[in-house]
Amino acid sequence: MKLSICIPIYNFDVNDLVSSLKSEIEIKNLDAEILLLDDASDVEFQKINSKAKSSVDLFNFLENNVGRSAIRNLFLDLAKGDYLLFLDCDGKIISADFISNYLDDIITNHSEVIYGGRVVDSNIPEKKYQLRWTYAQKRENLSLKKRLQKPYLGFQTNNFVIKKSVFKDFRFDEKLKNYGYEDLLFAMELKAADVKIQHIDNPIFNNDIETNQVFTGKAAEAAESLALILKDVKTKDRVSDLKLTKAYKKLRDYKLQRVFNLSFYVMEPFLKTRLHMGNVHLRILDFYKLGVLSRAMSKN
Known about the structure:
The protein has helices at residues 15-28, 43-49, 68-74, 98-109, 130-140, 144-149, 164-169, 182-192, 212-231, 243-253, 257-277, 282-298, and strands at 3-9, 32-38, 58-61, 83-87, 91-92, 113-115, 118-119, 159-163, 197-199, 204-206. By secondary structure, it is α/β, with parallel strands linked by helices.
């Protein structure tokens, strides 16, 4: 059984990540390959990451940015493995048995989709990074116990394995080119088809915490991605259980959307200023995302 480790890259140094993976493969003589696809990164990062070319089985640079979903789908035709392990480029390996843990679960449980989890530094960062850090701690870095309670909502694409034959039937939705919700939509498509997501305790360390300004921008991108999902008759029901979706539907059903949009237009600069400060309650971020979503849903 061969494993293909697939890493989409965008503006991040992957040399340490590749080195850690290569080390385990060689020490344990694992049947695994490492594939890298660069999604039109800046020239600076292309030069930095070109050092890893001799250590991997494939490294292709895309001329044009295709987005978070499409680049993952490209690995399907390139991977030789029976299973694909997807990792975000900003991840850091923190276990000497990281790859082996996945292989053991495949052999023991014959799992088709496996999510290993994620962690960030437990120390509170300086103020300009606190928004992203707080979000990760409270919303993303879920324990195995919590992930098992809601296995599909607890799934993320930063660190997961999927059987190649399953991935052929369930690709990422390529209309989602920007940040946000491609992982949730993918998980809900699996749920609808009764494909089980297995959760194990095999986290990767999130090695890149964005500034408050960058993450505020990503939050807006995520809300706009959710709007694309909701506007598509084929996918809108997949995200009906999401809290943000439910909040938007209440605005719409009670005919409050127009008033809310006007209020958000006035408040948006103040919300951004507060979010950029970093040390805020995540409800402010939720309100901001609701405003962006409602505005996006009002557009044709």
